[in-house]
Amino acid sequence: MSRTPAYAGRDGEGRAVEIIDNDELLSIRAAELYYDENKTQDEVGAILKLTRWKVGRLLASAKDKGFIRIEIVHPRARRLTLERSLKERFALSDAIVVPTAGTHDADDLRARAAQGAADYLASLRPVPRTLGISWGRTLHDVAEHLADGWATGVNVVQINGGVSVNQRAGTAAATAFEIARKASGQATLLPSPAILERRETKLSIEADRTVAGVLNMAANASAYLYSAGVAGADSALVESGYLTSSDVDELVRRGAVGDVVGRYIDAAGMIVDPSLNDRTVGMSLDALRSATTSIAVIAGEGKHAVARAVVTSGLCTVLVTDEGTALDLLNPVFPA
Amino acid sequence: MSRTPAYAGRDGEGRAVEIIDNDELLSIRAAELYYDENKTQDEVGAILKLTRWKVGRLLASAKDKGFIRIEIVHPRARRLTLERSLKERFALSDAIVVPTAGTHDADDLRARAAQGAADYLASLRPVPRTLGISWGRTLHDVAEHLADGWATGVNVVQINGGVSVNQRAGTAAATAFEIARKASGQATLLPSPAILERRETKLSIEADRTVAGVLNMAANASAYLYSAGVAGADSALVESGYLTSSDVDELVRRGAVGDVVGRYIDAAGMIVDPSLNDRTVGMSLDALRSATTSIAVIAGEGKHAVARAVVTSGLCTVLVTDEGTALDLLNPVFPA
DNA sequence: TGACTCCGTGCTCATATGAGCAGAAAAGGC
DNA sequence: GCCTTTTCTGCTCATATGAGCACGGAGTCA
Questions:
Q1: Are B320 and B297 in contact (CB under 8 A)?
Q2: Which residues of chain A have a CB within 8 Å of the CB of B149?
Q3: B interface test, pick of A36, A47, A59, A73 with most B CB neighbours within 10 Å
Q4: CA dihedral in degrees (A310, A315, A318, A322; nearest 10)?
Q5: A83 near A93, Cβ under 8 Å?
Q6: Confidence category of residue B5, pLDDT binned at 50, 70, 90
Q7: CA distance B91 to chain A (A)
Q8: CA A214 to chain centre
């Protein structure tokens, strides 16, 4: 064939149509006609003066060269491919990844993840008889996004302390109640501060019959749902007054990346400050690690590090997160 | 083997309380499996517990509700749908719209539009014997992006003055030469300043045999290619010293949105300052308007207003632009 | 030069998909 | 409640698409 200037042929409107000797460019033109104009491959062939098989091959090549991007734009869409990669990479039993596209701010993103978690929770089989939960903004969002009647007869139990001292008073309790109510179940609160000042106090409060009962119930829950906080001055534990901003700074200095059920962990998922940990009321991380079903909801730009610590140290069996975090987890920026 | 969580509708009690219509959510799940995981509709049906026909319908609905977005990511891709809309809306004989996606800066975008213009020029049939061109950064880019041998024997002629006073010396001339060289043709320069100080000088230079010859050649060109400038201090006419910054401010005050072949127009495409216009050497806008083929290359955030003036006042028969400008042209923000 | 491989092409054939239709189910009117 | 109207569902059938094969031309090596 001549390597002629590449142009000849006309489309339906009598416009000159290019026939380019460059296969890549041709595949783009074909893709435009096929996808944008939704013509049939045969029609595309007619316009570009190609056989329909050639068109098919061009489209295939355009696809695997990555020129064709198909995006599902919907707040409740998910990224199945990322989910599978996460599952494989971190040996999770499930992963939920919500898309970032179209979110405006961190709240938006958290809401999407919460929705994803709510959907997942509702689809969980067998339906948990008892669900252990932590508290925080994310968990609150999950509770809000759960549909009324998402399950029947699920009892909810708090797995870490924090009642009442919280500035956003009642939030922790409200979260538990709402999740339980929507599943026509009971909520059981853990009537204890999150962190006590002295180890002895912690031990004695744990020995209290009521608290011990709740902790026991928590230990035997059939599934857990929790989020993770970033180690920073805006942490819920600081806002609630359990820790001071400088306490957290010190924890960060010692390697803390965030907290899970009130306990600060480093990048390896290890407790940063054992003595602080000993003053913290609630399920231990080891207990959480041995759970059959533990769902972590961790989304947002700032939470990449905690998310990594959580999944790499086996703290959860199910991760609910956003696209950005998932990508970060899968493409680690190798540390020194 | 992990059991896929049941997304299929609950047979037991279909809750209509859901904010999002159940079918909508289903169609998203279906789309994920179909597009992201590329399963067959039948397989999707099996997973979601639906017949393949239902799946087909869900996908169709997802498509026309706009949840499925197919994007062709390639610098040389085009937006055919926008092109057609532009053609219809402004009675153009052709429109080329290059995608914005993935461009980093204005230069990038201009380069894409230039490439589009180059491609279009090469595809133009009949091949113009004589091509009238203006000059400027955009035109220079077009010249660069033209392929060697884009045509054979095309003579190029400048349609407005500007030789040599330009700071970027020789650019105007170089543009003409390059376009001509790549088509194995001759370039003819218009040996005159763009704007003269006195009308009399302008008249006498136009009367000069050489200049008159070039102008005559320009008037009889078979096609024209030009860009448009924004009315502002960074205008090429200011940079070249033909106008001062305050001259332009005054023009803007009087309604100028930009310049075309050295002549300032308002939003309606009318000459803003007739006396200035009378001192400007080159094709008149009316002459340009009566051309059979005049290709305007106007791209970039700042050029929306000029672009609008150009297309609404019939200055071009073909518009080469970017997606953003095209959208702006099609979705006018109605002025008071 | 001739035999050889390699790659791109156009094909056949199996499969996936969309259009259109008839019956079922649901919604609405009386 | 009963009947009409509308929507929804599962189907048949036509069409669009992808897999795989056989051919042929271009390049390669002896």
A1: yes
A2: 5
A3: A36
A4: -10
A5: no
A6: very low
A7: 14
A8: 28
* Distance between B58 CA and the closest CA of chain A, angstroms: 13
For A290, residues 6+ apart whose C-beta sits below 8 A from its C-beta are none
| Residue A267 CB neighbour total at 10 angstroms | 16
Beta strands in B15-60 (DSSP E): none
Q: Which two tokens stand for residue A216?
A: 């026991």
Say what angle helices B80-90 and B323-330 make with each other, to 10 degrees: 40
How many alpha carbons fall within 13 Å on the CB side of residue A113? Answer: 33
* Cα B77 from Cα B69, distance rounded (Å): 16
Pair of tokens at residue B117: 């213009």
Is the pTM above the cut of 0.90?
no
Cα→Cα distances B299→A100, B96, B107, B153, Å: 29, 11, 10, 29
Q: How far apart are alpha carbons B225 and B175 in whole angstroms? A: 12
Among residues B260, B249, B128, which one has the least CA distance to residue B194? Answer: B260
Count CB-CB contacts under 10 A for residue B164.
14
Q: Is the pLDDT of residue B198 over 90?
A: yes
pLDDT tens, B210-253? Answer: 999 999 999 999 999 999 999 988 888 888 888 999 999 999 99
Per-residue buried b or exposed e for A22-32, using 16+ beta carbons within 10 Å of the residue's own CB: eeebbbbbbbb
- Whether residue B243 contacts residue B262, with contact meaning beta carbons closer than 8 Å, is answered with no
Contact A184, A156 (CB under 8 A): no
End-to-end CA distance of chain B: 64
- Per-residue DSSP letter, B292: S
User: Of the candidates A5, A17, A123, which has its C-beta nearest B149's C-beta?
Assistant: A5
Chain A residues near residue B5 by CB distance under 8 angstroms: 94, 120, 123-125
Distance CA A221, CA A154 (A): 10
Dist. CA A317–CA A307, nearest whole Å: 13
Contact B32 A148 (CB under 8 A): no
